[in-house]
Fold these 2 entries.
Entry 1:
Amino acid sequence: MKIAVLGYGTVGRSICKYIEGDSKDIQVAYVLRRPGKATEPFMTEDFDEILNDPSVGIVVDALSGRVDSYDYMKRALLSGKHVVTANKAAVAYGMEELCRIAVDHNVNLKYEATSAGTIPIVAEIVSTTHTNYLSAVYGILNGTTNFIIDKMLTEGSEFDATLKEAQRLGYAEADPTADIGGFDVKNKIIILASTAYHGFVTGDIPVFGIELLTKKILDDYAAKGKTIKLMGISVRKDNDYALGVVPCVIDMDSLEAHVPLNNNIVTIVGDMCGELKFYGQGAGGAPTADALLRDIYSIFNSVNIDVEFQFFRKLNYVPEMLRGAGYIGNDRVEGTLEEIVAEAKRRNEFVAFECPELFKA
Ligand SMILES: NC(=O)c1ccc[n+]([C@@H]2O[C@H](COP(=O)([O-])OP(=O)(O)OC[C@H]3O[C@@H](n4cnc5c(N)ncnc54)[C@H](OP(=O)(O)O)[C@@H]3O)[C@@H](O)[C@H]2O)c1
């Protein structure tokens, strides 16, 4: 099967490298580059060339930026090509429209690589929901912030110095806002919750990052046998759900507390399987390319169109479903996650959320 890879950055190059070396079944027919950058014969600057080539079965989106990625994915699906993507911003933004186009055109839209790096969480959610009713999805979904918290805790460093180290090691972007502000996790929890609950969740959710985290806050929690991790959290009951992104108070004995460096852990809770936890590398060229390649091979091997059954529910956002305690400065505030995050933003102080619904702290 021939594929076209959009983008030739960390992830795009990793896919091409694997396919050149190891794949007999898949060939890269095109790599889309920006104008002036198509320096090799297999590269093109013209997306229409890819669309108009009937031998290209799958468009693999490894682009940065939401707007072009979304536009290209839409056009590829409309033209009857399968799409495999790593672009969480574009999928979280327009999952409903992209999925509907995929269903209407009888093609696959696969997005394993958007969430939790190489962890096969989308495939596991899809598989688990055949036999389970899922009532929660949550986890550490951003390697950069986990790296920062882990280093601050274990090495006793302050936030700014640790962020700089993460940037020097290539774990954090030059502009770290999406990671430390929680927006990257927001995209991922939207995608995972929609998949788990069989409907499209809202993008208008409470988000609080770790910019205001200090070593003292971590030390104070450690003295009480607890710690803090930035998490995407979501719960669901029938067609009602709530979700958000917030630093969570967790017990030092929990698995989440022991997730080191830039790794991720995701939990799903089902009525038959109970609590299932998935751990692994949450980012990086090879881990992300691996997730894309698994989606490519699943299309190549079966050509099952599996978008159709996934999103049939009309879901209602019910913020009251995520209630707990928020620790803001020296105060303990009870309320919904939405109320607690709004209060912390108003005060411009760090907040840690204790959520009895999801984990005993
Ligand atoms: N890296 C990871 O660990 C990771 C993990 C999970 C998901 N992802 C997602 O995977 C995608 C790619 O990530 P990355 O780390 O490979 O990013 P990257 O290194 O910045 O590469 C992005 C590539 O996209 C190209 N690009 C952007 N817009 C384009 C356009 N309109 N036409 C042609 N090329 C365009 C860039 O070209 P220029 O260089 O010319 O700008 C660059 O080659 C992103 O959506 C990211 O969120 C990445």
Entry 2:
Amino acid sequence: MKLSSQTQIQTLAGFKSESLWTTSFFLDTDKRLKTKKEVAVSFKNLLNEGRTRLDALDLNRVRKESLHQDLEKIARFGTQRLPSFNGAGLAIFACHGAKLWQDLTLPRPPRNHLFFDRSLHIRPLLSIRDEYHRICAFLLNRQEARWYEIFMEEIERIDSIRSDVPGRVREGGWKGYESKRIERHIDAHLHEHFKRAAQKTFELFKKSRFDWLFLGCQEEYRSDVESLLHPYLRERLKGRLKPNSAAPDKILREATEIERALRAEKEAALAQSLSSELEKGGRAVSSLKNVLGKLNTAEIQTLVLTRNFAKEGRICPKCRFLYLDSLRCPVCQVKTEKVQDIVHESVHAALDKKIPVRYVTPPSRLDRYGKIGAFLRY
Ligand SMILES: [Zn+2]
């Protein structure tokens, strides 16, 4: 199945088994940079490394057996489906004892990783999802209007209309007066066509709630068309497409480029606003240790992370507070447990508390603050 929605991620994030542990498997399968054979080798290495790690884990027999079954099923996936697998990345989520199995095709390569944990490791999915926006590409000429939905580098035509607008008056006509009258008549038709198209765009928006609108039309019509758009649409208008793009893959390429530039801009602005808040000693913190502290006390408003940043850490089994290196929970006075990736735990903790998580692609201004930061509530 393709990774295609926030709901998919939320369902996985919400998966809990009272007694069992889960397996999350991520593989970079980007064939632009690697051969099929290299992908197969990384798959095997990752699996073998997982088996060794699992043998050494101090878990009860039932939990261990379920994880072993997960690895066996992943190994079968490797022989049966991996050779024909197309996609930049593969994610597998499994919990044999609870009958969970989900393999996903990712539009971006994740880092190779295999996690055993109580909850599924969904952070790579969130980080990928955060890169994309739901875009509506609206293409318009004198007779026709077409709409495409673009999401995660896929394009789909969603609607189109045709209007009966008479062609342009090419000559002056037999009398100047007559020609002007015809022009006005055509303008009225054209205006009607644009108006219809603008209304249709709003209807489509009400249905699919896209984040951004990219408009492709001739420059001479642009201001007319824009002025006819509903204010909700005008504030989502973020990109200009070439008016003559007809082939969907061409529109997709153009839109993806604009999206990439807009995202880079947005991330840079986020990192910048965090860094200026930090520099003036405002409502923000940086560094993993400080962020974990503020997350434990529920003071965080937005968590800001560098993509793919990971670090070992510790968790209190009683209150679930997160620590970088405290061997004993200062609140409960019990021994903390080691976790493979405390950044992953912090994302889960944030999601549980309904705290938004934003990502920044390295290198960025965030690097000098320990790759992680947060805006605080107060
Ligand atoms: Zn505790």
